[in-house]
């Protein structure tokens, strides 16, 4: 067992519904400044919305990267956004990614940030066979996004990230995550979003419904009071309790996932879900977290 400090084996908070393959996880920051109301990590990490950089991050990652097996897959980041506003000033994520790639590892970038374009696109392009990027876009409505993800880049800017990276030959997954009833679950809107993502050159769409915790539900209800009753009925009165979360009723989730699968596959893209318990709906050989091209390379 290797003893690393910041590059850790990925732990999906012990969720048995997680279908991610084994990988490593690295969060250069503790906490996140994007301020997404639905964020579940805020329930686990104190002062989550006041992000800070981890002590000695570059040196420690440099050491850790030599201790893990060559060619490891490392996700930046599973519990924070590596390209959150603070990184626009400090720039650690780009430096770390460059270092890890130069040492032969594979990188999965999970982000809503746009600064990876300005700071880093040449490195990503150079190592494109060992890089996969998953960009989360929950809505194309700037007014909903402004309330839901107040300090994250606007949806149109994230769409541009997908477009630019795809143009450079990178494998890009768009995550529609989370889908929240009454906010972004309208099937016609989802269809036009998916159509837009197809135009950007994205290769895969991964979807996930909102899994409620009482703290995030409270934040959402304050921002969207008109939808509170619907959430109470769907999550608290009729939803399922699983692994520390309130899920939407199973039938409702299944119907939604099946509809989205047929839309996404109808466009010729790969489809996957995240922690829904329906892995049989995934397009064959597509991996939920977006590491699909790494599997093909093995
Ligand atoms: S970007 Fe991700 S980690 Fe950051 S607040 Fe939003 S959901 Fe949480």
Q: Please tell me how large the radius of gyration is.
A: 18 Å
Proportion of β residues? 15-25%
How many beta strands in the DSSP annotation?
A: 12
Order of strands across the main sheet: 1-2-5-6-7-8-9-12
Ligand catalogue:
iron/sulfur cluster
Mean pLDDT: 95
How many domains would you count in the coordinates?
1
Helix-strand topology string: EEEEHEHHEHEHHEHEHHEEHEH
Which overall shape is indicated by the principal axes computed on the Cα atoms? globular
Helix % is 25-40%
Q: Which stretches are low in confidence, meaning pLDDT under 50 for 5 or more residues running?
A: none
What can be said about the biggest beta sheet? Answer: 8 strands, mixed
CATH topology: pyruvate-formate lyase- activating enzyme
For the record, the CATH architecture stands as Alpha-Beta Horseshoe
How many DSSP H or I helices?
A: 11
Termini separation comes to 23 Å
SS content category: alpha/beta
CATH class: Alpha Beta
Structure overview:
Helix 1 (57-67) packs parallel to helix 3 (92-102), helix 6 runs parallel beside helix 7 (187-200) and helix 7 (187-200) runs parallel beside helix 10. The chain is of the alpha/beta class. It has 11 helices and 12 strands. The mean pLDDT is 95. Helix 4 links the parallel strand 6 and strand 7 (131-136). The chain has an 8-stranded mixed sheet. A two-stranded antiparallel ribbon has the order 3-4. Strands 10-11 form a two-stranded antiparallel sheet. 39% of the residues lie in helices and 16% in strands. The protein has helices at residues 57-67, 85-90, 92-102, 115-126, 142-148, 155-167, 187-200, 214-223, 228-237, 250-266, 292-297; strands at 8-9, 24-25, 29-30, 52-53, 73-76, 106-111, 131-136, 171-179, 204-209, 240-242, 245-247, 270-273. The chain is globular, with a radius of gyration of 18 Å. It has one domain: pyruvate-formate lyase- activating enzyme, CATH 3.80.30.30. The site of iron/sulfur cluster has 10 residues, from loops.
